[in-house]
């Protein structure tokens, strides 16, 4: 399997994941149109929190949004991610849920946030085949995996961070 294994190491990177708690149960009790509306609005609202805090959205998969933050001259990636996480929980509680209850059959959405920081390898994967382009970036390494797992551990409206991030 020849591979040049090209990638870009990003240092001082913080990864944040947010996703809807119990979305499978929610889907089982909802019509597809309602869930599509919820997923679109949720991804948009969570993405706006990431962008407003100086991050970039690098992946949206169903009900899960991935934000990436890097240090700059004004603010560390950690501060940006914490601000995004606080924004996410506030937006979900005070803006998203009241609108969702009013406009989507009294549905209430709970979400959890997971965060980790450290070095990560960003590398392209996928292929172009007969006019179809499946290429994307993979954020490989412990930081992305651990942040994603911490999202799964977070309870509703909880921001779950790693010990490494906390220190």
From TrEMBL:
Domain of life: Bacteria
InterPro entries per UniProt: A/G_cyclase, Nucleotide_cyclase
Xref: Pfam families: Guanylate_cyc (PF00211)
Domain called Guanylate cyclase: residue spans: 14-151
SUPFAM superfamilies associated with the record: Nucleotide cyclase
The protein's name in its UniProt record: Adenylate/guanylate cyclase domain-containing protein
Source organism (scientific name): Shouchella miscanthi
């Amino acid at each position: 399997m020849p591979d040049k294994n090209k990638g870009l190491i990003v240092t001082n990177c913080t990864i944040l994941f947010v996703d809807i708690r119990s979305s499978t149960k929610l889907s089982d009790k909802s019509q597809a149109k309602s869930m599509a509306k919820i997923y679109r609005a949720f991804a948009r609202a969570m993405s706006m929190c990431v962008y407003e805090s100086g991050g970039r959205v690098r992946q949206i998969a169903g009900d899960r949004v991935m934000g990436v933050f890097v240090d700059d001259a004004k603010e560390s990636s950690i501060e940006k991610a914490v601000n995004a996480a606080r924004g996410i929980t506030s937006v979900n509680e005070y803006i998203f849920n009241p609108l969702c209850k009013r406009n989507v059959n009294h549905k209430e959405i709970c979400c959890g946030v997971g965060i980790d920081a450290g070095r990560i390898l960003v590398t392209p994967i996928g292929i172009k085949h007969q006019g179809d382009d499946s290429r994307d970036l993979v954020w490989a390494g412990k930081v992305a995996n651990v942040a994603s797992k911490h999202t799964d551990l977070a309870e509703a409206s909880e921001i779950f961070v790693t010990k490494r991030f906390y220190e």
